[in-house]
């Protein structure tokens, strides 16, 4: 399954798709504009265990090869950020934290 996210000024629209492009589910939520931690946490909640890939679109001057955001007026806390690296780091940290909570001694 693939997760597709369209980050807009008012809403983040997202959907889960099968490999053949069939939409399994889609929805939207308000775009988090307060800070990058809350923003990344919101994105991370969308990632389910069976997600094999993620596609994200957003307005701004973005180097899609490096995942670097040069300019984005919508979310100024993401300017001059390696978006992909930051998102993956937060996702990995939260996933490891969840795994540690599930370990029974």
UniProtKB/TrEMBL annotation:
Family matches, as Pfam families: ROK
Family listed: Belongs to the ROK (NagC/XylR) family.
Name of the protein: ROK family protein
InterPro entries from the UniProt entry: ATPase_NBD, ROK
